[in-house]
Amino acid sequence: YFSTQGLSVFDCVFVLFDNRFTQTDIATLTNCMRFRIPTYIVRSTVDVHIRNIMYKDGLDGDCDDVTVCESLFPSTCGRFIADTQANV
What we know:
By secondary structure, the protein is mainly alpha-helical. It is elongated, with a radius of gyration of 17 Å.
């Protein structure tokens, strides 16, 4: 995949992922290391994942109470970041 897509000619490579890394992502990162190409790993749909965690913690689907949403957000973000770092 790395060679057929011509990724070795780029100055840097961004790997965008949603929930988990695929074998292609891992192979891309490995080849970038081999060719000394800087890489950046970007997590997509972060807002959706944070909102889903908040709903699992009992937040009402409408979230009319802004104070409740704002109070849950920092701790939920912290959990999301910790989970993401553990997966990467």
